[in-house]
TrEMBL record:
<dbReference type="GO" id="GO:0030170">
    <property type="term" value="F:pyridoxal phosphate binding"/>
</dbReference>
<dbReference type="InterPro" id="IPR052353">
    <property type="entry name" value="Benzoxazolinone_Detox_Enz"/>
</dbReference>
<dbReference type="GO" id="GO:0030151">
    <property type="term" value="F:molybdenum ion binding"/>
</dbReference>
<feature type="domain" description="MOSC">
    <location>
        <begin position="29"/>
        <end position="163"/>
    </location>
</feature>
<protein>
    <submittedName>
        <fullName>MOSC domain-containing protein</fullName>
    </submittedName>
</protein>
<dbReference type="InterPro" id="IPR005302">
    <property type="entry name" value="MoCF_Sase_C"/>
</dbReference>
<dbReference type="GO" id="GO:0003824">
    <property type="term" value="F:catalytic activity"/>
</dbReference>
<dbReference type="InterPro" id="IPR011037">
    <property type="entry name" value="Pyrv_Knase-like_insert_dom_sf"/>
</dbReference>
<dbReference type="Pfam" id="PF03473">
    <property type="entry name" value="MOSC"/>
</dbReference>
Length: 216
């Protein structure tokens, strides 16, 4: 069964690892009550770096509990729900294999998969793991950013139900492989998801696809 194992909200922290702003909301902790998810974000959460986070298509971030277990074993440190900066820790959901534009019903909300998370230096600094950006990118299991189509409350234990999937069949992992690993062989396939991408990301991905198509 695909469920939410934890809903997480930010505890704003400061430090040299937090980058140019000196503070970050990446440290998220499990909430003990239902949390409202809205088109503009997660109620009670905090976004410090609004230049790179907090757009409508990044209203929430979901990560698999199985991936937290993977990195706990890989790094020899226990990672808890919320430690990847995720609002939703999921169990039994292979989120990185979700399709761009796939729609989920969770609790009282309807969410739509918009794209992969790209690891950054703040993430590596928070985990205190040199080279984490490279390791995380090579592993390629990124979790997903979500837009909120229908606001509603979500609680730990809520089922994750797939409402619809687009016909293009482009997985989050495939988009990440093209943009971060230069997988030109995926360009034609990934082009199918362009209409389902947020405008800003669509332009970036299209720029990656065009040179690949020209040399095919």
């Amino acid at each position: 069964m695909s469920v939410v194992s934890s809903v997480n909200l930010a505890v704003v922290r400061s430090g040299e690892w937090a980058g140019r702003l000196g503070k970050s909301g990446i440290d998220k902790r499990p909430a003990d009550a239902p949390v409202l998810f809205t088109e503009t974000g997660v109620q009670g959460d905090a976004v410090c770096d609004t230049k790179h986070h907090g757009a409508w298509y990044q209203a929430a971030y979901a990560f698999d509990g199985e991936e937290l277990a993977h990195w706990s074993a890989e790094l020899g440190k226990e990672l808890m729900p919320g430690n990847a900066g995720e609002n939703l820790t999921l169990t039994g959901v292979d989120s990185t294999s979700a399709l761009i534009g796939e729609r989920w019903a969770i609790g009282g909300a309807v969410l739509r998969v918009t794209g992969p998370r790209q690891p950054c230096r703040v993430f590596a600094g928070f985990w205190d793991v040199p080279g984490l950006v490279k390791k995380f990118t090579q592993h390629g299991r990124t979790g997903v950013y979500l837009a909120v189509e229908q606001p509603g409350e979500i609680s730990a234990g809520d089922e994750v139900r797939v409402l619809s999937q687009p016909d293009h069949g482009v997985q989050v992992a495939e988009l990440f492989a093209l943009t971060m690993h230069g997988r030109a062989d995926l360009a034609e396939h990934v082009a199918g998801c362009l209409p389902d991408l947020p405008e800003k990301w669509r332009a970036t991905v299209a720029a990656r696809i065009e040179p690949s198509s020209a040399t095919a």
